[in-house]
Amino acid sequence: MKKELRNIVILTGAGISAESGLKTFRASDGLWEGHRIEDVATPEAYERNPDLVNEFYNARRAQLKEVEPNAAHFALAKLEENWPFDVLIVTQNVDDLHERAGSKNLIHMHGELLKSRCTETQLVTDWHQDILPDTISPYSKEGTLRPHIVWFGEMPLEMGRIYDALRKCDLFISIGTSGNVYPAAGFAQEARRKGAHCVELNLEPSLNAHDFHESVNGLAGEIVPKFVEGLLAS
Ligand code: BV8
Q1: Over the stretch 90-135, which tens digit does the pLDDT of each residue have?
Q2: Catalytic residue among 73, 98, 108, 110
Q3: What is the H or E stretch that residue 220 is in?
Q4: Dihedral sign for Cα atoms in the order 205, 210, 212, 214
Q5: Residue 44 CA: distances (Å) to CA of 38, 113, 153
């Protein structure tokens, strides 16, 4: 008997924002906007050279003003709006395109470009401008600000809430992620163990494609709206 599909968890990665013009991480050159990941996305890199790391994030934060959500982001917002049960998006992305497309029930497990964190108090604040060497934290005299981004070796955010949702979901959809980075790359297995139907929507099979019952390969801007239409029609 076909399982009743009620609660949905959707994991998204850089591929869902590619057609909006934001670079993915593991494009052919292996560099990320011209940098090696370990030089810009680890706490050690920040300790070693905070200005380089801040410049890297300043450029990506500024780029958000020039890009728009694409049809895939809007399709997920429409699903949340019209689906009679829970729809939770867990995004690895640090851009704000899901929000701007209208998604509300959303977790940024790797942080957000438009937020910064006080290095003294760990307090997080909305932050839309550059973080410069002389930027002082609004929370403490001697504290500086760092990007509110989860770097490699740091604990992703809201993991309790995420695993709780994975345990309860009937449908797990992974969109635009290569399955390189853990713990996100383990979510399909976790959902599957709990009986969820797992679907991968991606340009090409990911490293963990075998974790999925079903997969559709193509551009997110095309295959995600189609998949959402199919769900809403069911
Ligand atoms: C953790 C924020 C544990 C940065 C990111 C040694 C030391 C320390 C840790 C580790 C270690 N070895 C392994 C680890 C674990 C590590 C890890 O998994 N490393 C990998 C590289 C092996 N993970 C971590 O460190 C995580 N933390 O494990 O903590 C812990 C435990 C206890 C206490 C403390 C700590 C933290 C990981 C988070 C790192 N931060 N982002 C920033 O954004 O600036 S990760 C970064 O890469 C992104 O956020 C993203 O999440 C991630 C994966 O990238 P993708 O989104 O998948 O993008 P990618 O380019 O790879 O793929 C794009 C896909 O889209 C492709 O498949 C492509 O085909 C497809 N696509 C492209 N275009 C389209 C498309 N699909 C559809 N349509 C299109 N148009």
Answers
A1: 999 999 999 999 999 999 999 999 999 999 999 999 999 999 988 8
A2: 110
A3: helix 220-233
A4: positive
A5: 8, 19, 10
Ligand 1: does its nearest atom lie under 6 Å from the Cβ of 182?
yes
CA distance 169 to 120: 38
| Residues 6+ positions from 72 with CB-CB distance below 8 Å | 16, 19, 175, 176, 220, 221, 224, 225
Count other Cβ atoms within 10 Å, centred on residue 96: 19
**108 catalytic residue (yes or no):** no
Q: 95 and 64 in contact (C-beta within 8 Å)?
A: yes
Question: Does 153 sit in the ligand 1 pocket, CB within 6 Å?
Answer: yes
Query: Position of tokens 């829970």?
Result: 86
Residue owning tokens 């295959």: 223
Per-residue pLDDT reduced to its tens digit, 5-35: 999 999 999 999 999 999 888 765 555 667 7
Helix (H) or strand (E) holding 46: helix 43-48
Which residue in this structure is represented by tokens 């383990």?
Answer: 186
> What kind and span of H or E run contains 197?
strand 197-202
